[in-house]
UniProtKB/TrEMBL annotation:
Protein keywords: Membrane, Transmembrane, Transmembrane helix
Taxonomic superkingdom: Bacteria
Protein known as: Cytosine permease
Transmembrane segments: 28-46, 58-79, 100-131, 137-157, 164-183, 195-215, 227-251, 263-284, 312-330, 336-358, 370-389, 417-438
Species whose genome carries this gene: Nonomuraea cavernae
Protein family according to the UniProt entry: Belongs to the purine-cytosine permease (2.A.39) family.
Gene3D superfamilies recorded: Hydantoin permease
Length: 444
């Protein structure tokens, strides 16, 4: 795919090449924003609370607003990676210290392996929607796992491949399906703007879930502007298009069918004229999601094992991810993965304030002996609590029940306009600023 000098260094000691321009980043993030199950996500966009459906206009505005907010967070998280040349979890050495950075690193490894297995399941279910039971599920999982692992071994070459060929094919496919669905179905009538804030919260959550991997790719950008523009521009445009198309795809498939089985949304795509061909392109493209997850796991593990060849790690993670997709019902623990993912919203806010506003960029220490910064755990933890006190997105019953009891214990009422991601980011940012002010006062 590319020469050795144009690829990611094999160990953390190597110098990362700066070969990705704004088109490379834009193509990568646009492809990451288009997900097969993202189409069924239109259900949650249109009716995030289950009893207060939005108008189609309100849903599309929520998709745009939520995407812009979420991708701005991801884009800002990418900039330190470009400036330091360090992967995401290694960057956290500068925020928490080397040893304490292992805490979010382990959490990221757990969630990335889980999401990687989930994506292999999605790819396999998409392939079976086209070919039926002619090829067993296990075969598709293994094929998708091999492809994912290969992409992870040559990550920069894979990104250039996406830009040159895959992105164009995906755009043509989306346009084809949009024309078909617009003429075939009409989305739900009526609705209101009552649940607009929860809908925005849902879309933000879709976007900021990529915060932990942003610097893994941005470290290879030619400039911070290229990284930020690629993330915000590419991801926002593609995610709004994906959710908008999903509104019509769900209308064609039937809300009840998609509610009962999220993969039912695949049916209208395959049934459309030439649908099998264009849907196959979207299924093949889904491999970039599993690739991003496996590669980010590799980069995270290099924070713990900086001198182990990343290719060995990628192969091991690829095999593990494939095994999980074969053995475990990965569709059943998506909510659990969402709980872990919420860890990184307030953490991003702490990093952004410390790096951009409190002078962290001038003193960011990502060495293996970076001293512990215990005080940074405080805003992170408080932001995490704020997320669950203010979010309206349901996850695991026991977990949601715990936070409902916590609200009652402190006399806190969650208002309909509250947004979990923004609440977490705001609390974490303000506490970080307060800690910075105390430090400045102590130095005087």
């Amino acid at each position: 795919m590319s020469s050795v000098v144009d690829e990611v260094p094999l160990t953390l000691d190597g110098e990362p090449p700066k070969t990705l321009g704004v088109l490379d980043q834009g193509a990568l993030w646009a492809n990451l924003a288009v997900s097969l199950l993202g189409f069924s996500g239109a259900l949650f966009l249109l009716n995030p609370l289950g009893d207060a459906p939005l108008t189609v206009t309100a849903a599309l505005v929520a998709a745009l607003v939520g995407s812009l907010i979420g991708t701005t967070m991801v884009g800002l998280a990418a900039i330190p990676g470009t400036q330091t040349g360090r992967p995401s979890m290694v960057l956290l050495r500068g925020l928490f210290g080397a040893r304490l950075s292992y805490i979010p690193t382990v959490l990221n490894i757990v969630q990335m392996i889980g999401w990687g297995a989930f994506e292999l399941w999605v790819i396999s279910m998409g392939a079976m929607a086209i070919f039926g039971d002619a090829v067993p599920y296990a075969v598709w999982v293994v094929v998708a796992g091999i492809l994912t692992t290969a992409l992870s071994i040559w990550p920069l070459g894979s990104i250039r491949l996406l830009r040159r060929y895959v992105t164009v094919a995906v755009i043509i496919s989306l346009i084809w399906f949009a024309v078909e669905f617009l003429g075939e179905a009409t989305p739900q009538d009526g609705g209101s703007w009552t649940a607009f804030a929860p809908a925005v919260d849902y879309v933000i959550a879709l976007s900021v879930s990529w915060v932990p991997i942003a610097a893994d790719f941005a470290r290879h950008s030619r400039s911070s502007r290229a990284a930020f523009t690629g993330v915000v521009g590419g991801y926002t445009l593609a995610q709004v298009a994906c959710l908008g198309l999903g509104v019509y795809a769900v209308a064609v498939a039937g809300t009840a069918a998609v509610t009962a089985d999220s993969t039912a949304v695949f049916g209208p795509f395959v049934a459309a004229p030439l649908g099998a061909l264009f849907f196959a392109i979207l299924v093949l493209r889904e491999a970039d999601q599993s690739f991003a997850n496996v590669y980010s796991t590799t980069m995270s593990l290099q924070n713990l094992m900086p001198r182990v060849d990343r290719r060995i790690i990628s192969v091991a993670i690829g095999v593990l991810t494939t095994a999980i997709a074969l053995i475990v019902n990965v569709a059943s623990y998506g909510a659990f993965l969402g709980v872990i993912g919420a860890v990184f919203v307030p953490m991003f806010a702490v990093l952004a304030v410390d790096y951009f506003l409190l002078g962290g960029a001038r003193r960011w220490n990502t060495e293996e002996d970076a001293p512990a910064r215990w005080s940074m755990l405080v805003p992170w933890a408080l932001g995490f609590a704020a997320y669950w006190l203010t979010t309206s997105t349901p996850t695991v019953e026991q977990w949601d029940g715990f936070w409902m009891a916590a609200r009652e214990a402190i006399g806190f009422t969650r208002e309909p306009w509250m947004n979990g991601a923004l609440g977490a980011a705001l609390v974490a940012a303000l506490v970080t600023l307060a800690i910075g002010a105390v430090r400045r006062a102590a130095r005087r």
